[in-house]
User: Which sequence fits this backbone?
Protein backbone atom coordinates (compact mmCIF):
# COMPACT_ATOMS: atom_id res chain seq x y z
CA UNK A 1 0.00 0.00 0.00
CA UNK A 2 2.86 2.38 0.76
CA UNK A 3 4.21 1.99 -2.77
CA UNK A 4 0.92 3.21 -4.21
CA UNK A 5 0.98 6.29 -1.99
CA UNK A 6 4.56 7.12 -2.99
CA UNK A 7 3.67 6.60 -6.64
CA UNK A 8 0.81 9.08 -6.27
CA UNK A 9 3.18 11.57 -4.61
CA UNK A 10 5.62 11.17 -7.52
CA UNK A 11 2.79 11.63 -10.04
CA UNK A 12 1.84 14.89 -8.34
CA UNK A 13 5.48 16.04 -8.40
CA UNK A 14 5.68 15.18 -12.08
CA UNK A 15 2.41 16.85 -12.98
CA UNK A 16 2.69 20.08 -10.99
CA UNK A 17 6.45 20.61 -10.74
CA UNK A 18 8.58 18.73 -13.24
CA UNK A 19 6.54 19.04 -16.45
CA UNK A 20 6.19 22.83 -16.21
CA UNK A 21 9.87 23.23 -15.35
CA UNK A 22 10.97 20.82 -18.09
CA UNK A 23 8.72 22.54 -20.61
CA UNK A 24 10.20 25.94 -19.83
CA UNK A 25 13.77 24.65 -19.89
CA UNK A 26 13.18 22.76 -23.13
CA UNK A 27 12.26 26.04 -24.79
CA UNK A 28 15.58 27.56 -23.74
CA UNK A 29 17.44 24.40 -24.75
CA UNK A 30 15.92 24.55 -28.25
CA UNK A 31 16.70 28.27 -28.46
CA UNK A 32 20.36 27.85 -27.47
CA UNK A 33 21.08 24.63 -29.39
CA UNK A 34 21.86 26.18 -32.82
CA UNK A 35 24.28 28.67 -31.29
CA UNK A 36 26.24 26.08 -29.33
CA UNK A 37 28.90 25.80 -32.06
CA UNK A 38 29.46 29.56 -32.10
CA UNK A 39 29.51 30.15 -28.35
CA UNK A 40 31.32 27.44 -26.37
CA UNK A 41 29.81 28.61 -23.06
CA UNK A 42 26.38 27.57 -24.31
CA UNK A 43 27.49 23.93 -24.41
CA UNK A 44 27.73 23.82 -20.61
CA UNK A 45 24.41 25.61 -20.25
CA UNK A 46 22.72 23.21 -22.68
CA UNK A 47 24.17 20.20 -20.88
CA UNK A 48 22.75 21.46 -17.59
CA UNK A 49 19.37 22.23 -19.16
CA UNK A 50 19.22 18.76 -20.70
CA UNK A 51 19.95 17.10 -17.34
CA UNK A 52 17.04 18.96 -15.76
CA UNK A 53 14.76 18.11 -18.67
CA UNK A 54 15.68 14.43 -18.41
CA UNK A 55 14.94 14.40 -14.68
CA UNK A 56 11.32 13.67 -15.66
CA UNK A 57 12.52 10.20 -16.66
CA UNK A 58 13.91 9.66 -13.15
CA UNK A 59 10.57 10.75 -11.69
CA UNK A 60 8.85 8.23 -13.99
CA UNK A 61 11.12 5.46 -12.71
CA UNK A 62 10.22 6.44 -9.14
CA UNK A 63 6.52 6.31 -10.04
CA UNK A 64 6.97 2.81 -11.39
CA UNK A 65 8.93 1.55 -8.40
CA UNK A 66 6.98 3.51 -5.78
CA UNK A 67 10.17 4.56 -4.05
CA UNK A 68 10.04 7.12 -1.23
CA UNK A 69 11.29 10.68 -1.65
CA UNK A 70 14.44 10.06 0.38
CA UNK A 71 15.72 7.46 -2.10
CA UNK A 72 15.66 9.81 -5.11
Assistant:
Amino acid sequence: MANIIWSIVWILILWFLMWPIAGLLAGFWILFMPFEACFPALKEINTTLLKWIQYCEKVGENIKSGSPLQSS
In short: The two ends are 19 Å apart (CA to CA).
